[in-house]
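# step 3/5: fold
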Amino acid sequence: MVWARLGRMYELFETLRRSPDIEAPNLFASDASDRLVLDEAAGMLAASSAGEVVVIGDRYGALTLGAAAEFGLAGIRTHQDRLVGEQALARNAEAAGLADRYLPLPLTEELLSGARVVLLQLPRGLAELDELADAIARYAHPEVVVFGGGRIKHLTHAMNDTLAVHFSEVHASLARQKSRVLVARGARRPVDALPYPKREHNAELGLTVAAHGGVFAGVGLDIGTRFVLEFLERAVGEVTAALPTERSLTAIDLGCGTGIIAAVLARRFPSLTVIASDQSAAACSSASETMAANGLAGVQVVRDAGLALQPDASADLIVCNPPFHVGSSVHTGVALALFRDAGRVLRPGGLLLTVFNSSLAYQPDLRRLVGPTRVWGQNTKFSVTASTRSAVSRASNQF
């Protein structure tokens, strides 16, 4: 069997790490779906030349580095939505001596032009898959073959249907180790305009929202964000009263998604300096489009892992609707990292406004990582808390 001969690749997988993403005993840098994708594509990879292979959604480098190590491929073009995935791939590539084998690119024609093989970790959302499939069919070689892998528990028949919109032939591989690969070929070359980002006017907010396929809630207003928006005026008022100064106050929408919170802050409080920050390339592109659609050119959109690019004690208000998943696993590590970043970046007396599922009970962590924390609002599902940055530095806090 083809997969039985891929010893070098499997040895490489054992060395891969997730860092700088969350490391935990139940979180892994590769899984059986990575191996199955490479096994199913082995014949085409072996026959591929430099520049003909593209990898999309590689979580920490298993697909890219597996293809490079096992098949001697160079000129692999890659696209990863999550910044920490890009950073992990770079670290793993350097450790394996394969840093010169790939080139990271945004989801554009440059990424896909001339590609004959696309290796893909299937996204969970159908809109994201639709955008990826459209781009592949639009820009890749007409004879491109897509190998999209995933864990069976995350795959749906709707994924086949979504791929079938863009490709004339879609079939599933045999299952192995609870994983399966969807293989698509026969690209239906689009002739219409790019379908993403979607745009929709939200009458409730008086804003036009733009969203790429991979952004949570799309062009909609998710219920957590709607709830935290009720407390923005109170938060800005409290910060303004606590920090009397001639300078402009700085507010950050942390994990901005489509940028709704940042847009509302900029529109309601034009004297604020507003930053929208997210590690997702799709989110940052969406937020930039949202700002442009609403004439909010002053909002700075930053692709960043947490608040790594923001100086210590540089913000007066941070608003955060944190995730509680790492990939498909429920894990609080991402939220805690964001809280810790907020504690470092807030000026003493600054405020972190957070909305989260009440069952997660983040208040003790917020007190430890930021400062005194009050519950400002609760409904049947969510809590909104306000944490005031203590005068004592929190930069050294660990969790």
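# step 4/5: annotate
Residues 1-5, 325-331, 393-399 have pLDDT under 50 and may be disordered.
# step 5/5: archive (pending)
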